[in-house]
Design brief:
Length: 811
């Protein structure tokens, strides 16, 4: 029988998975349907699974199946049998008809390229991988820089043999996939010269929170194997999907990675590639331009939109891309459905630490879980067999050969790697908390040490000393919760925004600008504007942080706009109320360069803070930078869901001055639907609520400051901290008056203080008063929702939930 072992990508699609495997079928689908829409794919051809059936047949097939009958949890035996099977396949003679077709296809590809010599990538594509509900990073091998017929032949047989690597055998066993039913196809594509440029991975969702409204793109110099393998810490970019086609700058955040190495082609010996150190200059700049990030994001959306239509549900994608250093063109190298969040259960386990201890180490958090156990440092593959189930795996990096032990770990810690490296992908799939890019994990932590690894605190994960108590709460995240009282969240850390955005909330009731300045900017805005007033050592420190920015003001605006933009973009189009900076002078003083610009006050709590700073000559220039950052978010990033909130505004007269200062800096109340709220946190705000209501678009009750001003208690004072209590009758009465008077003034009234998060009775009382919204810390949302629903049933009647007024938005 004359079998055609070769197919062009234009001849295959998703219906051919049994013939060409998931990876090749997906590439063929894109060749046929998305290249006409502008998708760039490198040329190539496919060796079908029929070639595999011819090679792995008869006695060889029988012997392989016999060798696979063992307990694959025995790592030593797994490795031994894996190597035995692979060696048997490599020694198998290839038929002349197969080699003839293979070499003919290679020469045709060379001819069509118009080049005398070309390099190709040879990639495996198994018939049970890259499916909508099954995927795994690096099960089989890839061979790069293959340059002639002999090398192509060897790469193909090695690809086929890699169907039986230890990690592939282990994966199929743990997923209940029958070895006999799986075959392997091979894809041969012309190499994109990423060794001369950059490459990386795109996820069309946020890999940690599962948010579908963003695209996460990673990039590093050279061939992409370093990113997938976790050898480098790549640059990372988050891009907003809803504003991608309309905004001038839809990039919510740019994170500079270390990019320690660049993988390039090797011109000597049998080694196809080699790693070179990246120069400090290149490490300290992003490996992609903004235009390239936006272009790649649009390419990714083309792919996601097509697959979502194909499967009749939103289908987040995992995409590899590369930039050709010779032509400057960007190519999509492969795409597969992202499976971790696509198949997530409706039940979500929320983990929190009940207490904390000494922080031993920090790194980039992968997932949101917490794990604890005995640390085991693994420095080479020989030590893998010593790893015990439930231990904490600590390594410089991981590769696919480590998968059998990774799924047994309570947590994983690596020195190197980013959010799309091998360790991150495997840990997400198995639900194992993981810290990557710690830098010194294998030096700081010792085998036998008891530690707790937490990824529940946002982007930065922590390793704590000892075994700490962990609280678990199971929440149905897809329940259709509707309440008349809008539930919102308080946020200061942009790294928490995406995780909070998937909660059933109506938006952000309080985005604390000073938190973003303290964490992301770190430098006093006046120091950036007037470096001549700084001491030499402070100036040197500031200059090193500002880096390549030509002006300090540009640095401040970019860093602050990215922090605000990340929060507003995560929740878009839901409203995000950004409170203007509310540092006190003793806090501003702690910013780099702050001592040169801040007075020493006897009582900073009621001193030069909030609204009084914005129009004052000592800070008006700094406030102008805050305004420019917000203006950039609303105009350039298209985040019109941002509202502004003025804190600590002592009088209507002062409010008028602030409104005027905002207008002077391009933030005009009412223009492009810009609303300006005021914090209701002073007795003067409550007593003159009608006049404040005529000037501002809404109230947000700050229960913390309102309580301290009512009781005359400095909540920063340790001596009298026990007197501070929002449940004090006078404080409660003032809070009640603030809500009632604001509603009488005809404006929306929310509360963003800590009281509703801490005290259920206050939360219930606010519902009875008819407050418009309650903004809570993220960890209090689900607890408060239960209280609010119960209170609304009591206030509005038992049938309220069933007869919900549709004029009120659901969360």
């Amino acid at each position: 029988m004359n079998i055609n072992f070769i197919r062009s990508y234009g001849e295959i699609g998703l219906e051919d998975i049994a013939l060409v495997g998931g990876k090749n079928a997906s590439l063929g689908e894109m060749y046929q349907n998305l290249v006409p829409l502008g998708l760039n794919l490198p040329e190539g051809f496919v060796i079908t699974s029929e070639a595999y059936s011819e090679i792995v047949s008869g006695d060889l097939r029988h012997r392989i199946l016999e060798l696979l009958k063992f307990d694959s949890s025995d790592v030593a035996e797994l490795n031994r049998r894996s190597l035995q099977i692979q060696e048997m396949i490599r020694k198998t003679e290839l038929s002349d008809r197969f080699l003839s077709q293979l070499f003919s296809a290679f020469e045709k590809l060379k001819k069509e390229s118009g080049l005398q010599d070309i390099e190709v990538a040879v990639r495996s594509s198994a018939t049970a991988e890259d499916l909508p509900d099954a995927s795994f990073a690096g099960q089989q091998e890839t061979f790069l820089n293959v340059r002639n017929q002999l090398e192509l032949r060897d790469a193909c047989i090695n690809c086929i043999a890699s169907l039986f690597t230890a990690r592939a055998i282990s994966y199929r066993n743990s997923h209940g996939i029958d070895h006999e039913s799986v075959k392997l196809s091979v894809g041969v594509q012309r190499m994109v010269r990423t060794d001369l440029a950059s490459s990386g991975v795109i996820f069309t969702l946020d890999t940690e929170s599962g948010s579908r409204d963003v695209i996460l793109l990673t990039s590093s110099y050279g061939l992409g194997e370093n990113i997938v393998g976790g050898r480098v810490d790549p640059d990372e970019f988050w891009v907003s999907k809803p504003i991608l086609s309309s905004a001038e700058d839809p990039i919510l955040k740019r994170k500079l990675g270390q990019k320690q190495m660049r993988m390039v082609y090797s011109t000597h010996g049998s080694q196809r590639t080699k790693n070179l150190d990246v120069s400090p200059t290149d490490r300290n700049k992003l490996s992609l331009t903004d235009a390239e990030v936006i272009y790649l994001s649009k390419q990714a959306l083309i792919i996601e939109s097509y697959y979502s239509r194909k499967y009749n549900r939103q289908m987040p994608m995992d995409i590899e891309w590369g930039k050709d250093g010779k032509t400057g063109k960007i190519f999509i190298l492969q795409a597969r459905p992202e499976t971790v969040h696509t198949s997530i259960s409706n039940k979500n386990v929320i983990m929190t630490l009940e207490k904390r201890s000494e922080v031993l180490l920090e790194g980039r958090a992968v997932g949101t879980n917490i794990g604890s156990g005995v640390a085991r440092v693994i420095k080479n593959k020989r030590d893998l067999e010593s790893f015990q189930k439930g231990e904490i795996l600590i390594a410089d990096m991981t590769d696919p050969d480590w998968e059998p032990i990774m799924k047994k770990a309570s947590a994983i810690i690596t020195n190197r790697g980013g959010r799309t490296c091998h360790a991150a992908i495997v840990s997400r799939e198995h639900g194992v908390p993981c810290l990557v890019g710690t830098g010194v994990g294998t030096e700081i932590l010792k085998t036998g040490q008891l530690v707790t690894v937490s990824c529940a605190d946002g982007e930065t994960g922590h390793v704590y000393n000892g075994l700490l108590p962990i609280k678990k709460e199971i929440i149905d995240i897809n329940s259709k919760i509707k309440t008349r009282t809008k539930v919102m969240v308080n946020l200061g850390n942009p790294d928490e925004a995406l995780k909070a955005s998937v909660m059933p909330v109506s938006g952000v009731g309080l985005a604390r600008m000073e938190f973003i300045i303290a964490e992301s900017v770190r430098i006093h805005p006046m120091a950036l504007l007037h470096p001549e007033r700084l001491e030499e050592s402070v100036l040197k420190n500031m200059t090193s942080i500002v880096g390549e920015y030509k002006k300090g003001s540009d640095y401040f605006i970019r860093r602050l706009s990215e922090g605000i933009g990340m929060i507003a973009g995560a929740f878009y189009p839901r409203p995000v109320i950004v409170r203007l900076s509310d540092f006190k002078t003793n806090e501003y003083c702690n910013l780099i360069g702050g001592k040169a610009f801040e007075p020493v006050e006897e009582n900073p709590m009621i001193g030069f803070r909030g609204a009084s700073r914005y129009y004052h000559p000592n800070y008006a220039e700094g406030f102008a930078l805050e305004c420019k950052a917000i203006k950039y978010c609303r105009e350039k990033m298209g985040l019109k869901n941002i509202k502004i909130m003025v804190p600590f505004c002592r009088s209507v007269k002062e409010g008028i001055k602030v409104i005027s200062e905002l207008e002077k800096n391009g933030l005009i109340q009412g223009k492009d639907d810009l609303e300006v709220y005021v914090m209701c946190e002073l007795p003067s705000n409550v007593l003159d609520a009608k006049a404040f209501g005529e000037l501002f678009d809404g109230f947000s009750v700050g229960s913390n400051d309102l309580t301290q001003m009512t009781l005359g208690v400095d909540r920063d004072s340790e001596l009298i901290s026990d007197l501070f209590d929002e449940r004090d009758p006078a404080a409660l009465r003032m809070i009640n008056m603030a809500v009632s008077e604001g509603l009488k003034a005809g404006i929306p009234v929310g509360i963003c203080g800590q009281a509703p998060s801490d005290y259920p009775e206050i939360c219930e009382n606010l519902v009875r008063l008819g407050i418009t919204s309650i903004s809570l810390s993220p960890d209090s949302v689900f607890k408060a929702l239960r209280i609010i629903i119960a209170a609304e049933k009591e206030v509005y009647g038992e049938s309220f939930q069933n007869n919900f007024n549709e004029n009120y938005p659901s969360h």
